[in-house]
Specification:
Strand content: 15-25%
Helix content: 25-40%
Number of helices: 8
Shape: globular
Structural class: alpha/beta
Order of helices and strands: EHEEHEHHEHEHEHEH
Bound molecules: 2-phosphoglycolic acid
Distance between the termini: 23 Å
Radius of gyration: 17 Å
Strand order of the largest sheet: 1-2-3-4-5-6-7-8
Number of strands: 8
């Protein structure tokens, strides 16, 4: 039988805020607000340059994540950061293949190399997949399947508990409202089925979460009806009140 896994909430700060003091304020408010919500893992992904400045991490249910990593471990790669370097800074998770990075040219092959580098270094990989738009013929399902399959190519099943798939319909990122729980559920089950096809029952070890315009209000419906193991939050992760409320809902 598959392992029972903890629910997870990931906050993707993207390239915000500008100052370290603002960043520290958000972290302390979230840690204070969510300190009793111990059934849920909370992963905060600030700009990586700030990551070493937040005191002790991981602590309790709180973890630090990066928003990208390079696939080589060491060497002449100006501007890049390796998975072992992230690990050295107490970063335990990394978001990979976010649509904003794919838009800058990151391919499925590059995402796959990054996934393997991350898990080999002991990091958990939060792999973002999702269609750019929904067509009537259901071609988007094939698109998602391809993204998942490519990202997981040659990823050994011993790493499956370090993989989180974040389903993010790109057309709903930064939108007014999140996806309906029914649509989230349908796609989540589809992704879980792909993972079973790839890994058999062990595929159930991979957590599947939803992201794109998650807010406290939509979090509730999606957690009840979406069949997800957690949420990935953009904008509202920068607002401690809203983010703590989302964690409360998941918890
Ligand atoms: P959003 O961002 O919650 O602001 O839509 C989600 C994301 O880009 O991961």
């Amino acid at each position: 039988m598959a392992r029972k896994v903890k629910k997870i909430v990931v906050g993707n700060w993207k390239m915000n805020p500008t100052t370290l003091s603002e960043a520290q304020k958000i972290i302390s408010s979230v840690k204070r607000g969510a300190k009793n919500m111990t059934k849920t893992q909370v992963v905060i992904c600030p700009p990586t340059v700030f990551a070493g400045k937040f005191g002790s991490f991981p602590s309790g249910q709180f973890f630090l994540g990066a928003q990208n990593v390079f696939y080589e471990t060491l060497g002449s790669y100006t501007g890049e950061t390796s998975a072992p370097e992230l690990s050295e800074m107490k970063i335990s998770h990394v978001i990979l293949g976010h649509s904003e990075r794919r838009k800058m040219g990151e391919t499925d092959e590059v995402v796959n190399r990054k996934v393997k580098a991350a898990v080999t270094a002991g990091l958990s990989a939060i792999i973002c997949v999702g269609e750019l738009e929904r067509d009537q013929h259901g071609d988007y399902l094939e698109f998602i399947k391809n993204q998942v399959t490519m990202a997981m190519r040659e990823v050994n099943n011993k790493f499956l508990n370090k993989i989180i798939i974040a389903y993010e319909p790109v057309w709903l990122i930064g939108a007014k409202e999140a996806m309906s729980p029914q649509d989230v559920q349908e796609t989540t089950l589809y992704i879980k089925k792909i993972l079973r096809e790839l890994y058999g029952p062990l595929g159930d070890d991979v957590r599947v979460i939803y992201g794109a315009s998650v807010a406290p209000e939509s979090a509730k419906d999606i957690m009840h009806g979406g069949f997800v193991d957690g949420l990935l939050v953009g904008r509202d992760s920068l607002d401690p009140k809203k983010f703590v409320e989302i964690i409360r809902v998941v918890n």
